[in-house]
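Q: What structure does this chain adopt?
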Amino acid sequence: MSGDMIARIVSLVLLALAGLIYGGEILELFPNLSQNLTLIRVISGVVGALVGFVIGPWISTRLFRRLRRIIQNVPIQILVSSIVGLFIGLAFGALTAYPLSLLPRPLGQFLPFAGAVLFGYTGVLVATMRTEVTHALRERFGAKTEECAEDEVIKVHPILLDTSVIIDGRIADICNTGFIRGELIVPLFVLNELQHIADSADTLRRNRGRRGLEILRHLQEDSPIPVRITDEDDESVREVDDKLITLARKLGGSILTNDYNLNRVAELQGVTVLNVNELANAVKTVLLPGETFSIHVLQAGKEIDQGVGYLDDGTMVVVEEGRPYIGETAMVVVSKVLQTAAGRMIFARPE
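A:
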């Protein structure tokens, strides 16, 4: 059951009970309806239940998520100055609460609360708008403020992990190199898909899922990059890839994947994609026509007299007239280099 549905049910029950309990007070305004006490209570309970079911997520889970995102994006000095201003404003509100409560009804009932809200808001407004307060806090906290500001920059641009890149496993080595800066986020629906693969009846899929869970555990324990699992989700979207794109757009982050289709769909929707396969192709050894290198010819090629070998990074080398060298290491000269969708291919001839 989702968090929104739990919030709806709790709000429905609470407001329905409030309607049943306090619905009878409506009769004080309409003395002619005193004989319909039971009916009024039932109607108010039903209305309270409907209102609670509709507004439940907006006053609980969604409001909390929105406040959490706002707080994460606010600089630390502004946040501290706002809290200080709020306490000062509430202190002034408390001083004026007693005199205001002595006023005749109904002013004496709501003016103390209104005064506390007004003074609190004014305190936050003054503390955040006056640059002297912010400057004093910056000097007070010093380097801590700068470190927090740097952390905030990282949080503003998170990197969401796809199921395929977790199973692939190279993400752990990439994180250890320090090339990735930012917070890695694993959505709960990606973790659920990974667990579903690990529980598959097919042996290959089960092994891939378990490998992905092991890689994720290794990232959480040993990776220098912080890894966080989030339960943020869009219930209106069914497919995992679509959920990932929606969440990336919502958080303003990028997607780390090696799925070609997800890469293209995300780019069409304006989401930044970090593709592990493209990174691997970019760091492969660059060989130009005319260069000489040694290659171990492993097998025959598709054409007559062709031999095939592989570089250390996995690049395929097709050796023309290399069939006699199968099983041996030969010096070859690069004739041409082709970049295909499957990767880079090198054509060479024996030296």
